[in-house]
Specification:
Nucleotidyltransferase, domain 5, Actin, Chain A, domain 4, about 35% helix, 7-stranded mixed β-sheet, 6-stranded mixed β-sheet, elongated
């Protein structure tokens, strides 16, 4: 008798695909830990060097070492270009040593040795390295992974991350927001019921602030806000620009990160200064000063300078200050005050900087800090403070990867007491009559989620309906972001008769799927939304701010548009009924109706053509007046219809005519 062969499923690893460094983690016997490579290192620099002979790209520390010598062939911070298009990339972002192709609406590409690489392909090389390291450490094949992304990655960026995983030979089981993963790593499931936590995540290239609440083992994200183009790289850049200025003042070569160059000497200089800037930043987190030495920048010029922590903080403060607005908006969205939080946890390598910890502590009303002998020490007031506690108990570089591993274990059937819920940061809906946005999924809706509404036609004998999917917080469709368009066809019918159900579904990875179905025939279309225009996170911030700034104007536009639709329908119906029963109307009553029609039309003509708005109250009043006048006409028309029906059935003799 044959014995069935059972093959255990491969482990699911957790991966933090970072801007500066990437990590892979696993849960073993209930304990999450980061896997080390063959050199015993747990952090893999997210750097890829492409060799001229077409050999396999070099990834990690080896690539980082080559970066100074081969700056044009070495790619770093590729995460910033994931899922983005040329017209979405600022000039400053392309000021890197390698060649960035950012043209119009086409996807960003990196050109090296005459070939164009997509950001997904380059990220896949990093993932391949992490996959190989995990397989070497665990002694088995790895084919499944949970990968983290910034909370404000849009659909295109999330899909690009999934694609990178697939190119690396991984099935991406789940995309998880980085701040939410960090909450898992901190073991916040052990806090008291209904605890509220802020996750301040400042990494190499991205920033997120998320507010989470714990309820019966379930993490629910109440709100999230952030910027996928703000991080430690910006601090490195500020230090590098300062050093380049000092080098020039000392009589050395002139160079700037803001000016693109193909000169190999300048590229080498820029690469060396970038490298030392990052090193100096790290050292000054624990030391009061660092002596910077850059020998032989030219054959006759060497450079040295003492950089103090005070100078570093002067350079970094404006960058760190930019995160404050996101913190305030996230608290506002969650409808919480800072003192209602239980903890603020710090995630990301940049949060090692004492300045960051002091500023976050001040913003959230946490405890004060004491710096002695260059070390960061917490005072006794930490345990007595009434505000939230600042939690730095997990290695900031490893927290996200550990959380991804915990999520992977949840998917594999472990940690059954935990559940992870995220939210969508902006409202999603479709365009309706008059250019209005009709929200289907409001902002901060918990995901995964599925919701829908029924829609009908506004014109007789329509044969199709355009489903224009929007994202944003404004009332006018044109003021929101277009995620895509498609049409659903159906049989022509009078307006208001066709019924089309539109359903939005956001899956666990934050990807939007839109379904449109003709209720009569069952014909349907399902479209996975990929942003036609990838939107910068600064634009997300702008959208929220403008929705507040223009709230009254937007409300007036919606009120006017809805009142105008009702008025036009009333005008059309009145004229049609008048024409049909004109012989039954006496002159005075006919004039009353005409005056009512003119009253509505007069208000409509006062519409401001630029803003497409008028006085909603006046229009509603004029329409209500016309309704009141035409009640007798409507009653007469109904009587005539009923008599005609009865006559057709033989209940009334054909000789009976209409009553006056």
């Amino acid at each position: 008798m044959d014995v069935p062969q059972f093959h255990p499923m491969s482990k699911i690893v957790g991966i933090d695909l970072g801007t500066t460094n990437s990590l892979v983690a696993i849960v073993d016997s209930g304990i999450p830990y980061v896997l080390a490579d063959s050199e015993g290192q747990r952090l893999t620099p997210s750097v890829v060097y492409f060799q001229e002979n077409g050999a396999t790209p070099v990834v990690g520390r080896q690539a980082n070492r080559v970066r100074v010598l081969k700056p044009r062939e070495t790619v770093y911070s590729i995460k910033r270009f994931m899922g983005r298009r040329g017209n979405d990339v600022g000039t400053e972002e392309t000021q890197v040593a390698y060649s960035v192709v950012a043209e119009g609406a086409g996807p960003v590409a990196i050109e090296i040795h005459g070939r164009r690489w997509t950001p997904e392909e380059i990220s896949a090389e990093i993932l391949k390295k992490l996959k190989a390291d995990a397989e070497a450490a665990l002694g088995e094949t790895i084919s499944r992974a949970v990968i983290t992304v910034p909370a404000y990655f849009n659909d295109a960026q999330r899909n690009a991350t999934i694609r990178a995983g697939e190119l690396a030979g991984l099935k991406v089981e789940r995309i998880v927001n980085e701040p939410t993963a960090a909450a898992l790593a901190y073991g916040l499931d052990r806090l008291k019921e209904n605890s509220k936590i802020a996750v301040y995540d400042l990494g190499g290239g991205t920033f997120d602030l998320s507010i989470l609440e714990l309820s019966q083992g379930t993490f629910q994200v109440l709100a999230t806000n952030g910027n996928t183009r703000l991080g430690g790289d910006d601090v490195d850049r500020a230090i590098a620009e300062y050093l380049l200025g000092e080098i020039e003042r000392a009589g050395g070569p002139t160079a700037s990160l803001s000016h693109r160059t193909t000169d190999l000497d300048q590229l080498s200089l820029l690469a060396r200064v970038r490298e030392v800037s990052e090193s100096v930043k790290i050292q000054l987190s624990t030391e009061p000063f660092v002596d910077v030495s850059l020998p032989f920048l030219t054959s006759t010029f060497s450079f040295s300078i003492r950089l103090t922590r005070e100078k570093l903080e002067e350079l970094a403060r404006p960058i760190i200050e930019r995160t404050r607005g996101h913190c305030l908006r996230s608290l506002s969205d969650a409808k919480l005050r800072a003192d209602e939080l239980d903890q603020v946890i710090l995630v990301g390598g940049q949060t090692r900087m004492p300045l960051v910890r002091r500023m976050v502590s001040e913003w959230f009303g946490c405890v004060e800090f004491h710096e002695q002998r260059g070390d960061l020490r917490l005072g006794e007031e930490y345990h007595q403070a009434k505000g939230p506690q600042l939690n730095t108990g997990v290695h900031p570089d490893e927290a996200v990867a550990l959380g991804a591993a915990i999520q992977a274990e949840i998917l594999a059937g472990g940690f059954r007491h935990l559940l992870l819920l995220d939210v969508t940061p902006l409202s999603l809906g479709i365009e309706t009559f008059g250019g209005l946005m009709n929200p289907i999924l409001p902002r901060n809706t918990t995901i995964p989620v599925k919701a829908g509404e029924m829609f009908t036609t506004a014109v007789d004998n329509q044969r199709s309906m355009l489903i224009h999917v929007l994202q944003g917080e404004r009332e006018r469709a044109q003021d929101n972001w277009s995620l895509g368009r498609f049409e659903i066809e159906f049989e022509p019918a009078p307006k208001g008769v066709p019924r089309v159900g539109v359903q939005f579904e956001i899956d666990a990875n934050g990807i939007l799927h839109v379904l449109a179905r003709d209720i009569k025939t069952g014909h349907q279309k399902i479209v996975t939304m990929k942003s036609a225009v990838d939107v910068a996170d600064e634009e997300v911030q702008r959208m929220v701010e403008e929705s507040v700034e223009h709230a009254f104007d937007d409300l007036r536009f919606r009120q006017w548009t809805e009142a105008k639709r009702t008025a036009i329908e009333t005008l059309t119906a009145t004229r049609k009924t008048m024409a049909e029963y004109d012989a039954d109307l006496d002159a005075d009553y006919r004039q009353q109706i005409l005056d009512g029609l003119l009253g509505v039309e007069a208000v409509l003509e006062q519409e401001n053509r630029a803003t497409k708005t008028g006085d909603p109250a006046a229009l509603k009043a004029a329409t209500a007046r016309l309704d009141e006048i035409t009640q007798a006409l409507a009653a007469h028309a109904m009587d005539q219809v009923m008599e005609a029906m009865l006559r057709k059935k033989g209940v009334l003799p054909a000789s009976v005519g209409p009553t006056a």
